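Help wanted!
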Amino acid sequence: MTAPLEVDGSAASASPEAVTAGMGRRIEGRSLGQIAWLRLRRDKVAMGGGILVLVLVLVALLAPLLVGLLGSPPNEFHSSLIDPVFSTPKGRLGGISSEHLLGVEPVNGRDVFSRIVYGARISLLIAFLATLLSVVLGVLLGIVAGYKGGWVDTLISRTMDVFLAFPLLLFAIALAGVIPTSAFGLEGNSLRIAVLIFIIGFFNWPYMGRIIRGQTLSLREREFVDAARSLGAGTPYILFRELLPNLVAPIVVYSTLLIPTNILFEAALSFLGVGINPPTPSWGGMLNQAIDFYRIDPMFMLVPGLAIFLTVMAFNLLGDGLRDALDPRSR
Amino acid sequence: MIRSRRSAGVTAATALALLAAGCGGSDSGGTASPSSSGSSSGAASVFGAATTQMVNPSDKTGGTLKYVYSDAPDSMDPGNTYYAFNWNFTRLYTRALTTFPAKPGADGLKVTPDLAEGLGVPSADGMTWTYKLKAGVTFEDGTPVKAEDVKYAIARSNYSEELTGGPKYFKQYLDAGDYAGPYKDEDLDDFTGITTPDDSTLVFHLTQPFAEFDYLVSNPQASPVPQAKDNGLKYEEHPVSTGPYMFESHSVGKEFALVKNPEWDAASDPNRKQTVDRIEVQEKVDAADIDQRLVAGTADLDLGGTGVQAQTRSTLLQDPVKKNQADNPQTGFLRYAMMSVNVPPFDNADCRKAVLYAADHEAIQSAWGGPVGGDIATTALPPNVAGYKQADVYGFLADKNGSVDKAKQALTACGQPTGFSTKIAVRGDRPKDVASGEALQQSLDKVGIKTEIVKYPSGDWSAQYAGNPKFVKANGLGIMVAGWGADWPSGFGFLSQIADGRAIAPSGGNYNQMELNDPTVNKLLDDGIKTTDLDARNEMWSQVDAKVMESGALLPFVYEKTLLYRDPSLTNVFVSPSYGMYDYTTIGKQ
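Answered by r_m:
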């Protein structure tokens, strides 16, 4: 590894930095990664966000177990819990009870808790995979544009401009509205999820691409790149063995910040009715249903709203903390 | 309040104060009158009163009636509109040959003469219908109404390329050759579908007998339009009135006002009333805002007539006073699911019946807003359509939550004892359609019928998706959730589009989504529409209904109902059963 000391935020670097950790203890070297971790641990807000993210991921992964213990199946109707005249849950606060921790849905009495839990799966799955797609595309094209320069850079940069200027939401609505029932060997909801991931991920790569291109532009002038080049290293080697490790910090930070954006985007699409098909629960879809009842059953709007709010906040806090830890100069 | 207006320079605070003063003034004026007159009326104001009687009957004149509407109407031109509320409202300034009488309940469904002296007289072979106009009816400028004016109105609305808004029933049934419409062919004599032997006689020449012609000429298209005043699409700015009101001003797409038509003669018109001085209509008002204005009394009526939003519904029903000022009439719409007989396994009648038996009718009703949103439907025809006969062959009302046993028997009979998989197509932007699809999905799941809900946009629903049999077959859309309301309240008006096998449009625009092509049904419809005897005809519509239900391809959900709010200051209010909303031709203000 050849990363020089002065490169800021190179978490993967193995270069040592002397830190005196205490009078009585032996002086030892620490990696930049360790330092960043130390800084992050001291940032209570970021740690809070991180723990919340961890909990959310666990909830999504363990959804069947959680629902089995604490709720009823997400698509099961409980008509007996609904007031037939007003279509709203009987009892206070949207029908909260020991069996239905967050109450039941108006009209059909489905358990809100289990729908929120299962909704987390959809939201996080789509957000993570869409982010992964954006990051792969953005890093690949950004690093090439930044390193190669010239017409390659111009072409990629102008493409990014086009993508950034694209009316994404309108396009997404149009595209999601015409998804066939089966294609590419996928069917029904798995196809819809794949298409949503593609739409969200494919159109968000320029954000990542621009940042990576900028970083690459400054990195490629550094001595270690010159050194590698003069030793006869090929372009792929320089791109992926010399430059990429130094870009890990911005990649981690901006991926973490892209996830909440994508969660919101998925919620917006579901809210507008072009998300996944019912009865599969999704937070945006629940919010949409809640519009008709917000005055008479505010709980039903509050719960998915809070779920989206907390998730987005958790990822943003963690992302901000990561940026502070990995790149203290940007503070 | 006046004291705060110290200087000419208007600050924000003063502006607000002035606004508040203005509001307070009009509020007190608005609420004083209803409270003073609450006891003067004969009919008691109870929940649903206006569906059976006229509430607050009164001959008091004067005042302004304020309508609000959440959108802009398709057109105020009587020849270019296809909304039920507009067919109701245009009667304030147009008189068609016939109309529906100003009576609540079943009497309001019987078509009655309006501009014509009597109902139409068919020839012995049923191929011509003759109407005679009442003497002395004039337009708002005093010109007498002639038979040619009605003939011209039908020519422009049905045969021109410009006016696309309304239905084209006259073009379908009249024998007019390839007449190109009055804008291309200005000589009205070339229009041979209608002849006018004298100024007060109209003879309609048909291509086939059509016994329900009296219903067709209740359509506002059959109200007179003077050829000299017609300016095509711009005619909606000021349609020439023959009714009790006429246009004073009209800003298309925003608002318009009607005032009394001095030429209207109450003696010739037993149906309408001319009570208020002015009728104002404000368009494009937010739906939630409309509800608030209605309940606050700052607006009188919602022009759309589709009832209040779900939230206002609960507010009204929970308030004992307000509840008594609400009505819960049937809209004339049937909400249903259709099973395509060309999508396996629904090509087998027993598989279709398994769905009918398994369906949880109460859960589906709940999706439509519970008993206030609609009654559980058991027939293909809704109750306020001529030919409706109470029946419940599958025992929906006995097993409101569905019968797993009967469904399993039907599944065994169709050779799929463990169930099968299919798709439920819904209009994704219609929350109630989606919710009823989900309820159906849950109930089918109990008997092993696995379904996937697929959403399509309502805009292209009939052109490209559920209304396109090729698409339905290619994508295996076994069950489609939809609804239907009749253009006129008879079995034929309701069923001819959704149950006649010859109405199946192979490449889109199909409403017979079950693709039922039963020779018995087709023949009954053909024979029925030739039958001039009303009772015999209605009996045949009942038979069509029974046949459709027997096929098992139609799963009726609910006879849709709505919740209308009537302000206590309104007089002569009743629900017109044929339009499923308040009759706009009689309402006055106290």
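OP: Thanks! One thing I noticed: The longest helix of chain A spans residues 112-148.
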